[in-house]
Design brief:
globular; binds flavin-adenine dinucleotide
């Protein structure tokens, strides 16, 4: 049986009973949904060997090929399985520790990620260091065999649920820009860490401000050498867009189908201009899929920027279409609750900001693909 068939059969068999109600829960704009059941599902997936497929077998993965990883993500999305809680560990810090961590770090951190026992968050952005990440000011110094961390991070997704955070911070006093930074692994549940939720347009809080005030972590919890944090941080970003993109597009197709169905029901589809936008959205989704397949290589280079720019702008337009398809009813939250299409409209505004804003992606394409002069 191919891995795709195995995944399909396993998901059909296991998204039943206690997990039947987990279908469709979570995801962008809906991370508040079903935390307990999604955590149980994360552990169930891990126990059955369906997390971290790309990892080497000696760390509990399946050393799956890119094609098999795509197949899994597609089947996962098709089964409407709940949004993963462990994706930051599995997709970002896990691969970074595999690539640049020590053997002790791999032994300590990888198994709990794979088993869904420890959740992670990403501590990069700060109030004055977003697109300009090299401006980070959070600092850390060694004291009695431990790093002591002080500073503020912002927009930290899922920090309120996370056990650990990978923190980009300045460990060489007086250093500038990308010099003198380090990549520390910091436990979240300790007195020196305060997480304050940020309320979003959707009324929910998926990201947070995180304040480190003398937070500590063992001296050994540094990936790479002190001062080498920029290189490690960039390696993490290199893992940000991968095989899961094609699974994401199955979710997009489901959303688009729902928008089309809504436009039919409300009569909005009689408007020739709206019909034109729906057809265009459908065609562009096909193009997105073909482009994603083309960029599916271990190191996709600037094509990853094209993919990010394309899907995020497309998804934001889909949010606007969702709003138009509902007509005036879309402007009102019934009983104070947003429905899926309203949530899609509001949350998709964020797509062109996180994981590198559209302007930053255009700069990358301009400089690295078109060879235009640096900004
Ligand atoms: C939903 C969501 C989740 C997030 N999760 C996390 C997380 O888990 N961890 C984390 O560390 N961060 C996270 N972020 C933060 C995200 O990485 C930053 O918002 C992003 O990098 C932009 O930084 P900024 O918000 O400081 O905006 P700024 O960098 O201040 O940018 C403001 C505007 O200026 C434009 N701009 C900036 N520089 C240039 C330039 N050189 N040329 C042209 N235009 C430019 C930008 O495109 C933007 O339109 C998240 C953000 C969102 C929206």
């Amino acid at each position: 049986m191919s891995l795709r068939e195995q995944a399909r059969a396993w998901l059909a068999e296991n998204l039943t009973g206690e997990f039947a109600g987990a279908r469709g829960l979570g995801g962008p704009g809906r991370e508040h949904e079903g935390h307990e059941i999604r955590l149980a599902w994360e552990r169930h997936l891990g126990a059955a060997g369906w997390t971290c497929l790309a990892w080497p077998e000696r760390y509990g993965g399946r050393a799956a090929s890119l094609e098999d990883q795509v197949a899994f993500h597609e089947e996962y999305a098709r089964a409407d399985a709940p949004a993963r809680l462990g994706h930051i560990g599995e997709g970002l810090v896990g691969p970074t520790i595999l690539e640049l961590g020590t053997e002790e770090q791999r032994a300590r951190f990888l198994p709990p990620i794979r088993r869904g026992e420890e959740l992670w968050c990403q501590g990069y952005s700060e109030p004055d260091a977003g697109s300009d990440l090299a401006a980070v000011r959070t600092r850390a110094h060694l004291e009695d065999g431990r790093w002591v961390v002080t500073g503020q991070k912002v927009w930290t997704s899922l920090a309120h649920l996370a056990d650990w955070c990978f923190v980009l911070c300045r460990t060489e006093p007086g250093s500038r820009r990308h010099h003198g930074l380090s990549y520390l692994l910091v436990p979240m549940r300790q007195p020196g860490v305060e997480v304050r939720p940020i309320v979003q347009l959707t009324g929910t809080s998926e990201f947070n401000e995180v304040f480190f005030d003398g937070a500590v972590t063992d001296a050994g919890n540094i990936v790479g050498e002190p001062g080498d944090g920029w290189r490690v941080a960039m390696a993490t970003l290199g893992h940000e867009r991968g095989a899961s993109t094609l699974g994401q597009q199955i979710g997009f197709r489901r959303e688009l189908d729902k928008v089309i169905e809504t436009a039919r029901r409300t009569g909005a589809a009689d408007d020739p201009l709206l019909r034109d936008r729906l057809v265009r959205a459908w065609l562009e989704l096909e193009i997105m899929r073909l482009n994603a397949l083309r960029a599916l290589r271990p190191d996709p280079g600037p094509e990853a920027s094209i993919g990010k720019l394309y899907w995020s702008e497309w998804h934001r337009r889909l949010g606007e279409l969702a709003q138009a398809a509902q007509g005036r009813a879309g402007l009102v939250a019934r009983d104070g609750e947003l429905d899926d299409l309203q949530r899609l409209y509001l949350f998709s505004r964020a797509d062109t900001i996180y994981a590198g804003s559209s302007e930053i992606q255009r700069n990358i394409i301009a400089e690295r693909t078109l060879g235009l002069p640096r900004q």
